[in-house]
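hi support,

uploading two proteins for the ticket. first:
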Amino acid sequence: MAKVIITGGTGTIGRALSRLLAEKGYQVIILSRKAVLKDKRNSPGIDYAQWDVAKQTIDASAIRNSDYIIHLAGAGVADKRWTDRRKIEIRKSRIQSSVLLIKALKENPNKIKAVISASAIGWYGTDPSIPNPKPFVETDPSDEDFLGETCRLWEESIEPVTSLGKRLVKIRTGIVLSNEGGAFKEFKKPVNFGIAAILGNGKQVISWLHIDDMCRIYLHALENESMQGVYNAVAPKPVTNKELTLHIAKSQKGSFFVPLHIPVFLLKLVLGEMSEEVLKSTTVNCEKIRKTGFNFLYPSLESAMTDLLKKKEK
């Protein structure tokens, strides 16, 4: 039974991915800063080991005895307002966690075959033209804004594992739709009060994917030995903010909701610099991951929403 270390395993993607891997017969080891007993709420086959990024310490036995690492760790980009201190924390949490993994791999004899590391489509910045922008592809350069620079440093920080003879795959993730957290949950909040809150003019493009497809991409990258380098993780059919918001509202409220455009000045007042991200249009191409043989279970927003709402009702 192959063992997979997951950093950031307690987040929305990490929890779902841990369950999927356990269901597929993998032994999952979630790295946690605190000592954690086996979580009975999770599937069998999920255990924990300690690490502390700030202190640069890690359970060496987890490294020595595992076969793969899936690296998801990093402070939530949208969890708090972007103060200067928070921006440092967002960037540092990603870079220093990579540094710790590389240090552990260098210092401990191990059999790690591959490292699958998270990144984000924040790498690309804003579409150069709207409407009908040319989708970003993996070879496009990083943007010079905060997220673009963060993603560049994030990807560079894990790159040294290749010099250790490990296969490295970097997954640039879009907006993940999940009932358990993340952007989808935030989009739904105003709808609960009968309001479809369209951000700005609503024309900005959102490159998204279903949480199940997100987890399946990580599994695919882990099992497909020909995969290495960067891959975009987005569904084939991006949508505008207005399309996404109205679809959520119609799915939950039928015709009993009021579309409401949230003015740009108000978003800037409430969110500060982060408002630039929710107003940014980023159209991303997924052909590279599809050419590896990956098939999306939820290629369209309609199929994804139907599934998520069905699961919510259970």
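and the second one:
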Amino acid sequence: METNWYEELPIAVTVCDKEGKILYMNKKSAATFEKYGAKELIGENVLNCHPEPSRTMLAEMLVNESTNAYTIEKNGIKKMIYQTPWYENGEYMGYTELSLIIPMEMKHFKRNP
């Protein structure tokens, strides 16, 4: 059974190839970037969507296959952004960005073995 569970996930999922061409945006990602064209951004280069210094950092990530994770706050909403490479059969294919709304104050649990 094949499903598209990720299409309506309440997390913005954006996927690009290793050159930065946007390949996929789920509904939440399209809504997040609606004022920039929403799903019309598919086929565009993600580097053109970022100002400096983010653009240079993202270009380096595309080459070095590194992960970048951080939180942001905008318009009273706090989000965690997680940008990481994706692979198919072990071959580097590009990047995915997950963007999810998180509480302003969040519990943190430290688990010890």
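thanks. also noticed: The chain has one domain: 12-102.
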